[in-house]
Amino acid sequence: MTALLELDGISKTYPGVRALDGVSLALNAGEVLGLIGENGAGKSTLMKVLGGVVPPSGGEIRLNGRSYDRLTVTEAQAAGIAFVHQELNLFDNLDVAGNILFGREPLKGGPLRLVDRKAAAEQVAPLLRRLGADFTPWTSVAELSIAQRQLVEIAKALATEARIIILDEPTSSLTLSETARLLTVLGELRASGTALIYISHRLGEIIDCADRVVCLRDGKLAGALAREDISHANMIRLMIGRDLRALYTPPARPPGEGGLAISGLITSAFPQQEVDLRIRPGEIVGLAGLVGSGRTSLARALFGIDPPMGGSITLDGAVLRVRAPRDAVAAGLYLVPEDRKKDGLVLDMPIAENITLADLPHYASAGLVDRGAERRAAEGQGKSLRIKAPGVEVIAGTLSGGNQQKVVLGKWLSMAPRIILFDEPTRGIDVGAKGEIYTLMRALADKGVGILMISSDMEEVIGVSDRIVVMHEGRISGTLQRDAFSEKAVLRLAIGQDGEAAET
Amino acid sequence: MKRRSLLAMPAALGLGAALTTRAQAQEKRTLAFVVNVSADFWTICRRGIDKANREHTDFNMEMIVPGQASAAEQRRIVDELLARKVAGIAISPINPANSTEMLNRVASQAVLFTSDSDAPNSNRAVYIGTDNVAAGREAGKQMKRALPNGGKAMLFVGTMDADNARERVQGIREELQGGNINIVDIRTDESDIARAQRNVEDTLARYADINLLVGLWAYNTPQIYQAVKGAGREGKVKIVGFDEDGLTLRGVAEGVIESTVVQQPFEFGYQSMVGMVKYLNNDRGFIPANKQIIIPTRIIDKSNVSEFQGQMRDLLRGR
Amino acid sequence: MSKKELGLALLLIVIGGITAALNPLFLSGVNLLNMANLIGLFGVFSIGQGLIIITGGIDLSVGSMFALLGVIFIDLLVNYELAWPLALLVVLVMGLVMGLLHGLLVTRLKLQPFVVTLCGLLIYRGIARYYTNDGTMGFGYAGNLDTLTWLAAGRSFGVPHPFIILMVVAVAMWVLLHRSVFGRYLYAVGRNEEAARHSGINTNAVIAGAYLIGGGLAGLSTVLLVFYTSSVSPSSFGNFYELYAIAAAVLGGCSLRGGEGSILGIVLGTVLLQILQNLVNILGIPSSLNFAVMGSVILLGVIADQQLGRRKQAKALNRSQAVAVPAE
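Above: the input entities. Below: the structure tokens describing the complete assembly.
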């Protein structure tokens, strides 16, 4: 059987750097190709070549038996290549049908060119059914959750009758059950003969869905794995060229006394629910749950972004009143936010200024910043966190995701942390940097910092936490001790089936 | 002096004020004087209106100042006055040539006088004010008196699209025709007082040999006076001006300003109002055949400035 | 000096050079000092505008503030015969209060700065006209104000005081913006208010602070402008001056999206605007073309900056890719 798509010796050279170096691969109809590799390994450049956005410097693309030196965007679309991006490209002021059929709306009324909304719904409804969507073509995209929007993106690809769908980190914003459903949908697509390229950092998903795995490293093909060889260890070895040591490091000593105690806390997102939670110094508490279960609302309430509407918070026995983030910061309660580009960093400012931003008066006398002290502090953090950058005056926005996250961490570590809330600390970060972040979290905990880690990544929750707390619809549905950890137990609590699995 | 208590403002803003005016308007007929821009000149005019109102208490006389010196703003004011069914409007039209339609609409619904700036093509009953070409000629005479041996002159004005500016320039040019005074240029400032002064400063910097500066609008002359003093060129550069700004008169008294051509806005206000009352009482004998009542200009120079300053102080006091 | 400021300085030199070549009087002492005076007058409040723009806001009300504070100032001096230091203090405090009011409306009630200050523009102008009964206020018959006149409009060693005041204000604001904690917060808030809040910064206080300073500098400018013109016509005094300030700030590298700009840039922007107005007179270009010249040069400057910025970005992108790929 001839391949649907073949790449032969594709190279891409930017001035001074080879982003792709002789990459060859083939994709058959009805197969899922897992594409893995660390950030910067060349995955996105390769995808841009396929989408016709970037012309390759060398090599050949064979598509449907035709051979191309380069593709244009139109050619790529005509050949049935569609993308589902990590960043969603939807108009949230339009409804679902309007997004799916954007630019190809069925028309009526002759020269008036009115959108035939009925015909549009008729076209879209079967697609949504096929994807098992629980919303209608009329639903406004603004009302959809991120997972639902991801489905809209996929429906969009299906509507163009794509034969090759490329999914770039499609699950990064999805919860466990949503991920499971997406994988089912992908299975059905495969069965109907669609070819899929699945890019993800979440190796568990690759194991679940890929027929074959291809790994890129430094722009070259690092290796391929057949179905029976796909395993965590093999993939990690391909990606980083060495074995990754076991994820879980036990704490150096049992958790201390004091820490953060929350009782009867009411968040503005769930005014009906009260939350009780304890984070002791020296422990890493994993906070799992579906997206929208109230985990982020809880973190935002504790940090004072959306101040709590009721309940009490004590830190080491002293009552803590949080009306604004500055109250939390003053008490040593810090948040490493989910969206680091939006909330964590001032992207246009240098690393040094980001690191000292929260504690600037400390580096100032008479209101004037001592730039030497600032620089020394930033360099200290840069060194201890191993931030990869030529210097601390580098603009934070130019760093990779992992290094940006380290800058956010550096901001808090340069102060006196007592409790740190991590919201999805490794989202969009490659495997190598993930490991470093876990090590850092453990080191912090061992220094007596209490850590709450919100995560939707099951491996991370189970692999890093000392204790897992699960939320469901705004309340704590259960707590798991280390010996009771299992994906199944977490999932049951997350979808609200508490009872026998819970033990506190 | 002319200021209001800010404490009274909320009351003025309140319904009370609006209601009383309206109540008065129902009993008494209203005569309105619409000016072109806010200036001391019109404050003096207001004194004339007040005097007329004291003599004719059965009328309600008001003066209306547009926020912006634009024809559009003036048109809005006029439309509102017509909607209030005023009996008569005296107006200083900002753009008379192109306001004929608006003015005729007024004339069809109320008595229409023009003042300060005429619109001869409209159906206005009469024009009461200065003949600006004649005023320009007066200024031209003063320029010749200041520079008997000729020289270079520069004119300053807000905008040249105003008729009174064009007419004054025309009068000046007519008077200087064939003489040895050369008008280098006319600089405009778009009614920005600070720019009016910088125009003078730049002129002084650029032309070392300039002999005479002429301010055509009320605020131009004091800015010339300040800039010339600032450059230390008083005496070497002569100044001729228009109107009676306080600083202008001080300059005349000091001898820095040669002379200023003043109009008699008090008479504009008084005669317009009294004229409209007469007109409404069907007494039209006071209107000459050419429908123009010209209020002559006066020349204020060192000889009569102190007396004139006294008059102005009295007029502007207690406003 | 950043690239942006360097580019602006270059533009200044080119335009100044062309003007001087066409008419050497452009570089005469008298003309330069006249310009210095005007740069001082317009620079002080442009800096205030710049600070507000850096927070991502805008202040459209400054022109009307000049009219209102101007008539009050003259009234206090001429009619109430208040001692001049007191009158000065009243005007400065009123400027601060107006600025604070704008700041509080923007931060507490979450109103858009454009709307708040547009309303300020209308309200202050209206109050000024009502207060004076639409009459011009001047020092016409005022008593002894020699000290204040000298302070606000005099010269020392031949240098006009407004220019000296601008230099003092610029240095103070440079330290504030580029060296102080507050200045750092101002940039952080302008670039990413959410991240600043997540860092525990009281972003509302920072933004309100910028409006407060803007108001205070507008108060100071009022005094300088009043002594420049010696009279205030409430309906036209300061009209459009907010736009000069915005133009100077934008020319000087401030982005209306916030987070960008420098004091040096704003001062250079003011200088360029004043040169443009001066050259119209010095070269004898018809006054009617004044605004057209100004608009064209600003447009050209902004386009050039945009194009250079794009090229720089492309270069930076190439470089960062060159660094990023082998690094991982």
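Note for the figure: Chain C has one domain: 3-322.
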